[in-house]
Amino acid sequence: MPAPGSASQDTVYGLFQCRGDLNNEDCGRCVAKAMWAVISSSSDALARRDAVLGYLGVSDGTNKPFRIGGSGDLRGVAQCVGDLSPSECQDCLSEAIERLETDCAAAKWGDMYLAKCYARYSEGADHWHGGNDTNNNDDEEIEKTLAILIGLTAGVALIIVFVSFLSTLCEKDIEVYIEGNVLPSKDCFKYLGYMIHKDGDDDVTHRIKAGWLKWRAATGVLCDKKVSLKLKGKFYRMAIRLVLLYGSECWAIKKDHVRRMEAAEMRMLRWACGRTLWDMTPNSAIRMSLGVVLVSEKLREGRLRWFGHVLGRQPSNAVRRVELITADGAIRRGRPRRKWVDCLRSYLKDLALTDDMSSDRKIWRLKTRVAE
């Protein structure tokens, strides 16, 4: 096709593709009209071509006949006609790349047009037109945005740490005197087998360790293949789970505590059944074979059983008076911590129970007990 405004010997060559519903004559007229329109309207026809190819490269499709890529300053373009299969396209492009390596080995850029495919490479930005400048600008904008977000996140984190440090400095330890002697302050202490801790973490950890200690002492029964699974499950319920849940009636338990106890229990049950995680046996199947329910359900049962005993006391009883105590003082900002009463209220809501129902022991036991 002669270029407009040039001598007749100046010719522009190209590789074109039409829709499959056009015949050769209509396709030729469409290509000629399109090329004259592009060349006449803009002298930057090469940039327009690469922009269109770049759009095709990122468009959706399962079998796109066009690909772009690069490594460092080296950029590459490859395109096949639409009627080629993936294997035929690969063979054609392999031949084009081999001819590029042979004919254009020392050149900074080169084009290779074959009958059914087209390949092109360029080194540096001099011969790579089209959407590169826009892409580079977009990358720079993204990097700037990420840097701003990272800076803001780091600033907010520093402010939170600084405020927490100041609040810790401003807190005053309350001194408790017994017969004129100051009672030492501790984050946790042991009392009647309990590990009293401000967050309850140490008590849960202590119970899990105690459960494992009892389980190791009973491995002669739990790991014996001659003992049936039902008997192992019954032994676990009577000898090990009671140790694991000792004192849990008074915990202000969190979801993380329940998750840790369930994980420890499942390791014990899998070991007793001779199963590992590689066997891909569901937890429900292991529990069903041993006749053991979730430890969270037994935890709820024990807490509601204890709560029923507390509600059965007179309001003047020491246990009831302690239950109704409200601590004075300022509340910190943020969501308040989950309390023992909050756990019980959520249990009552899930089971559709009320405080008045605790007066009837049979109904209360029927509603709160978890069968195994």
Describe the structure.
- With 372 residues, the protein is of the alpha+beta class.
- The chain has two domains: 42-133, 2-Layer Sandwich (Killer Toxin P4, Chain A), CATH 3.30.430; 189-327 and 337-368, no CATH class.
- The chain contains 14 helices and eight strands.
- It has helices at 24-41, 45-58, 86-103, 132-170, 201-217, 219-222, 229-239, 241-244, 255-273, 283-290, 295-311, 318-323, 340-351, 361-368, and strands at 66-71, 74-80, 109-113, 117-123, 176-178, 181-183, 188-191, 194-197.
- The strands form three sheets. The chain has a four-stranded antiparallel beta sheet, sandwiched between helices.
- Keywords: Membrane, Repeat, Signal, Transmembrane, Transmembrane helix.
- The chain crosses the membrane at residues 146-166.
- Pfam families: Stress-antifung.
Brief overview:
The chain has two domains: 42-133, Killer Toxin P4, Chain A (2-Layer Sandwich); 189-327 and 337-368, no CATH class. The chain has 14 helices and eight strands.
Side-by-side strand order of the widest sheet = 1-2-4-3
Note poorly predicted spans: 1-6, 55-63, 126-133
How many helices in DSSP terms? 14
Count of individual beta strands: 8
Largest sheet: 4 strands, antiparallel
Helix/sheet category: alpha+beta
